Fold Circadian clock protein KaiB.
Amino acid sequence: MNPATPDSSSSGPLTTPEEDDAGFYRLRLYVAGQTPKSLAAMANLKKVCEQHLAGRYEIEVIDLMQNPRLAAGDQILAIPTLVRRLPSPLKRIIGDLSNTEKVLVGLDIRPQETP
């Protein structure tokens, strides 16, 4: 197959972000119910992502009150915990994510350059 010729089997625009964009962040936030700390962590994470990773992130929120078995997979010992699954290596941040600088450093996010 000629790579320049599009066809239904080519990955084209159907590639997943981790395949075509090394700058894509896949984040997983572990919480326990709708507590003030959990809600704060969700809001703070969304704010950081919108400001520094616009269009380059995916957030999965896992409520351990509903699915406690999912904590073992990422070795969650405290909540809320944010796990950066992509890009590698895996990183974790514990807390409500209110310290933006700590979150940026912990996730190794480079601030967006302004043109």
Notes: The chain has a mean pLDDT of 81. Residues 27-90 form one domain.
